[in-house]
Amino acid sequence: MRPDTQPLQTLPSAPPAPEPDVTPQTSRQERALLAPLLSVAAVTLGYAVQVANGARHPDSMGLLTATLVASLLAVVLPEPRHARLVRLAERTTLVLLGVGLVGQFVLLATASPAVYLRLGREGLTPFLAGIAAAAVLAGAGLSGQPWLGRLRLPLLVGVHVALGTWIIRHSPQPHIDVYTFHIEAFQALGKGINPYAITMPNIYGHEQFYGPGLVVDGRLQVGFPYPPLSLLVAGAGHLLGGDYRFANLVAMGLAALLMSTCRPGHWAQVAAMVFLFTPRTFFVLEQGWTDAYVALLVAATVWSACRAPRLLPYALGLLFAIKHYMALAAPLVVLLYPGPQPWRETARTLLKAAVVAAVVTLPFAVLDPKALYNDLMGFQLRQPFRMDALSYLSWWAARTGQQPPSWLGFAMVLPAIGLSLWRAPRTPAGFAAAMAMTFTVFFAFSKQAFCNYYYFIIATLCSAIAAWTPPRQEQRTSP
Residue ranges of the domains in the chain? Predict the structure, then answer.
């Protein structure tokens, strides 16, 4: 792979190499307003899913709109001509992230972190003590003081793991089908049965959450509805921790650590803190949603683009394998290759990524390809329109009584991808920003969109901020 077509790396501390230095090119392509706008998007989206646990609400719809506008502007706005705006970009980013983080800790301390907690005499006291400790550590990070230095983020991850463990222990059996799907799949695997060829119990006693004909005699006529890689990761948590949600918890922490090391700048650590303590993080953990794995692999992909380009195809392959809708991000990979032959290099990377995805998926496909398709694709296509979804489609249906077509989300993705390819910076930060904007559009115009869907977008926004490199001020001129 030619040096001028590799995903860009901008490590100021690295010694000069004989090859052409890509740092000036990266700085010229990066935009000053990208990180401040994405900071607004990451914080407001976290607040949006806090309002009603990710369901539709007038306030959450307003915050979702603010997120969409901010992420869209981050992708399309040109570099400002005023030198003062460029000089203030880094400071503005830190202020926005810091103010947002303070608000997140207030919400974590004043609202229940989960919905199925079984509290003892101590109530929420241990949890609140952990939040207080995390707030102190994060405050030290916001101040920029050298206290604890590089240990600050690992310590925050440690506090997050302790808090997450408390949540799992005090909410051992959440009443949600995602948790039941995993338990049934693990039991099937233990008996040597293909988890994609079984049926699932309908724990709700009604059929409004499932498509017509999917429930027969109290059984949901699908098997495990998540890709094999997700099953393998969750299975590791089940075997090693006794609860698959420990794998989710570890994934959250690893994602934050990767974000914090994308770039040497102070803002990377603060962006990681915003992700780690987004207000509904422990609710996502309690419910057992697998989007924590998506967050980890998004962070790994962006980190690889920044620090280890040779690992990029493998990270991308795992990302594509963890959720079927991640294939929508494939065209955006070209943003990581600003050289003279970007599409050729993109095709090579995507081919390698496809091989990686196939390696972890095909073993289950070979067992029963029809069952795997029905569980992963057929089930999703037959899912009903949800009036409680945090999307413009449910908002429109509630106001007019008319249900918009479900394909609208896919239709809206096409212009979002086209706009990203036209306007987004060709940098790791630009790639992540375009990905966040595209998926925000996709879910905001989908028939189903809830807290877990937007959780991984928060991770993508924070990864983009962490990968951002402030443009060099000496390269800008005021009008």
Answer: 24-475
- The pLDDT assigned to 81 comes to 74
Nearest residue to 334 via CA among 418, 412, 268, 255: 418
| Mean pLDDT for the stretch of residues 13-24 | 37
Return d(Cα 433, Cα 471) in angstroms, integer: 16
CA distance 156 to 191: 40
What single-letter amino acid sits at 310? R
Give the span between the Cα atoms of 392 and 441, in whole angstroms: 10
**How far is 278 from 108, CA to CA, in rounded Å?**
9
Please state, as a whole number, how many other Cβ atoms lie within 10 Å of the Cβ of residue 92.
Answer: 17
Taking the CB of residue 105, how many other CB atoms lie within 10 A of it?
A: 19
Task: Give 473's contacts (C-beta < 8 A, 6+ positions apart).
Answer: 83, 86, 87
CA separation for the pair 183, 465 (Å, rounded): 36
| CA 64 – CA 41 distance, rounded (Å) | 9
- Strand partners of residue 392: none
364, two tokens: 């289950």
Q: Which of 311, 341, 357, 274 is nearest to 39 (CA)?
A: 274
Helical packing angle, 83-110 and 125-143, nearest 10°: 170
Give yes or no for a contact between 38 and 46, defined as CB atoms under 8 angstroms apart.
Answer: no
**Are the C-beta atoms of 147 and 259 separated by less than 8 Å?**
no
Asked which of 18-32, 265-279, 280-294, 417-431 is least confident by mean pLDDT, the reply is: 18-32
> How many CB atoms are closer than 10 A to CB 11?
12
**pLDDT of res. 479:** 35
Strands 215-216 and 200-201: unpaired
The number of residues in the chain equals 479
| Token representation of residue 82 | 């005023």
* 146 pLDDT more than 70: no
User: Whole-angstrom Cα distance, residue 299 to residue 429?
Assistant: 11
Confidence check: pLDDT of 460 > 80: yes
Which range among 170-179, 250-259, 335-344 shows the weakest confidence by mean pLDDT? Answer: 335-344
Partners of residue 220 on adjacent β-strands: 200, 215
Contact, 361 vs 321, CB < 8 A? yes
Q: For residues 395 and 388, what is the distance between their CA atoms, to the nearest angstrom?
A: 9
Which strands make up the sheet holding 219-220, listed edge to edge? 200-201, 219-220, 215-216
pLDDT at 80: 78
Query: CA dist 314 to 1, 164, 359, 443, Å?
Result: 16, 29, 11, 26
Label residue 265 left, alpha or beta by phi (over 0 means left) and psi (-120 to 50 means alpha): beta
Neighbours of 47 (CB within 10 A): 22
C-alpha span between 106 and 101 (Å, rounded)? 9
How far apart are alpha carbons 440 and 419 in whole angstroms? 14
